[in-house]
Amino acid sequence: KQEVTQIPAALSVPEGENLVLNCSFTDSAIYNLQWFRQDPGKGLTSLLLIQSSQREQTSGRLNASLDKSSGRSTLYIAASQPGDSATYLCAVNQAGTALIFGKGTTLSVSS
Amino acid sequence: GAVVSQHPSWVICKSGTSVKIECRSLDFQATTMFWYRQFPKQSLMLMATSNEGSKATYEQGVEKDKFLINHASLTLSTLTVTSAHPEDSSFYICSAMGQLLTNYGYTFGSGTRLTVV
């Protein structure tokens, strides 16, 4: 059974810092890996989707990498801002199946 | 494109009553709908998977008679929480998958906050 683990569970940084969020999964036979953002009491915002054949994806200040063979992904956030404060969720799936989520990393960026 | 509208966004109901949550795909055909729930400070846990026109498949530990899922059309899926109890209070969110979405992409509804009093 696929399990997704995210480290750290919580992270507090001052504005401007670069940071890395980690995600690992137990079954490397994934189709996609996706990073989401969730604000308190809100739904999900998709940040980046990496197909299994890809190594990384970038969007603005965000960069996500995937090492499928080792079952790891990282989300790199450059020049963090207070508006980046949220919970970041990592999820994986096989083709046509439901996304399996990690417990998330709650990020707090102070000004 | 690929929008899923979920209603209501929040609901408060009395213990013992039933609540229906709807998810509609607005601009694509959702062949599969996944239903999740999220307890405070926890991650999203898959409850069930439904394919249009078929009975839903429930995850272990999810009571199918309590959480009724209907996916009668390619644009509408509903989750009914029957005889709700305070322990059913949670955040419920749907996720749709359509054949035309690239790379088996998933589109999420905005979620429903259920509070049972």
Provide a quick synopsis of the model.
With 111 residues, chain A is mainly beta. Chain A contains no helices and 11 strands.
What are the defining features of this structure?
heterodimer; A: 111 residues; mainly beta; six-stranded mixed beta sheet; five-stranded antiparallel beta sheet; 11 strands; globular; B: 117 residues; four-stranded antiparallel beta sheet
Task: Give an overview of the whole structure.
Chain A is mainly beta. Helix content of chain A is 0%, strand content 57%. Chain A has no helices and eleven strands. In chain A, strands 2, 4, 5, 9, 10 and 11 form a six-stranded mixed sheet that branches. The mean pLDDT of chain A is 95. With 117 residues, chain B is an all-beta fold. Chain B has strands at residues 4-7, 10-13, 19-25, 30-38, 45-51, 57-58, 67-73, 76-81, 90-98, 106-108, 112-116. In chain B, strands 2, 4, 5, 6, 9, 10 and 11 form a seven-stranded mixed sheet that branches. Chain B has a four-stranded antiparallel sheet with strand order 1-3-8-7, with no helix packed on it. The A-B interface holds A 31-32, 34, 41-44, 46, 49, 51, 89, 91, 93, 95-104 and B 6, 32, 34, 36, 42-46, 49, 91, 93, 95, 97, 103-106, 108-111, 113.
Rg measurement of chain A, Å = 13 Å
Average pLDDT metric of chain A: 95
* Helix count from the secondary structure assignment of chain A: 0
Unreliable segments of 5+ consecutive residues of chain A: none
Q: Give the number of DSSP strands of chain A.
A: 11
In terms of structural class, how would the helical and strand content of chain A be classed?
mainly beta
* DSSP strand content of chain A: over 45%
Question: How far from one another are the termini of chain B?
Answer: 37 Å
Largest interface: A-B, 23 and 23 residues
Mean pLDDT of chain B: 90
- Structural class label of chain B: mainly beta
* Helix proportion range of chain B: under 10%
The strand count of chain B comes to 11
Low-confidence stretches of chain B: none
Main sheet specs of chain B: 7 strands, mixed
| Discrete helix count of chain B | 0
Radius of gyration of chain B: 13 Å
